[in-house]
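Let's sit down with a protein and look at its sequence and fold side by side. Once you have written the record down, we can walk along the chain together.
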Amino acid sequence: MSDRPGQVYPDQYQAQLTAKSAQLRDEFAPFWTGEPEVHASPTAHFRMRAEFRVWHQGERTFFAMFDPANPREPIEMPDFPVGSERINELMEKLLEAIHAEPELRYRLFQAEFLTTLSGDALVTLIYHRKLDEQWDAVARPLAARLHIGLIGRSRKQRRVLTRDHVDEALTIDGRQWTFRQIENSFTQPNARVCEHMVTWACARAAEFPRGDLLELYCGLGTFTLPLSRHFNRVLATEISKVSVRAAQHNIEVNGIDNVVIGRMSAEDFSQGWRTGEGRRILDYDLPGYRFSTVFVDPPRAGLDADTVELVRQFERILYISCNPETLRANVEALQDTHELTHLALFDQFPYTHHREAGAVLQRRG
């Protein structure tokens, strides 16, 4: 078996998925007696984004990754089988252009790819030098020839040629949704599994009595918008300016009229909810909402103590986790007030130990 990153082993996939499901089941055995619902990934070309170091050896340049155990030795990446077909197509064409054009190659350090299921693509080239109009003059025709958005970055510089985003179309909950994904904002890496995750969350929400939804960590609205069809009103919070800008665009293009985005962190919202103070939280008519459910998709650290106390006040907690260990800790902290009623595994990263999970907690009594 090759040690090169990004390889696929379809014949091993089902055994790996079964092991991940069993691990999740065992972790939550104190709170859950069933088998997790399992959502598999495609076995190849499932990652919509990737980043590579650009390595120069004499007159030759190649894309590289590194083994954490040997971080000084580049591993050449002639292709990236876990990456989308569009990423693999662009890798070859971009290297051809870099070799042919010294202005593109000179002190090029890194290349980042963001693609969609429909083949839309954004490439960011990162340099250890200042970029100018001469770089634009050779990069702009390249972008047109490859049909991509292209961005050049260097220290304190960001040169956007035509656009800084891709538009993804996902089929979720029986409808197609359009999501603008802006460079350097968080996006789900595995689009097909993302469709499963959001559809699963919507299916759980459809089982709840209709009310209002509070969402923390809403990002660009990938969960927010489809979930909004199952609630009267939605208040969603997000700290990133770029993600809030994308979310507002996505609300408009998808014709959603019952979602308000609040730019604040989950921690600030939790503190404001508890104290009734804070300029940002006073901008929203919290007493006017009739919250029945809270939806959270936190970072790997899970919910902090204040946010755990906040979500405890809701009838239902709908939780997507990129780290089942912190999800388990949060579930344990909520056990005195909430019961775990649903558990799901989402395999965003095949051929790795990484697991993502979904959970529903219902207030006891």
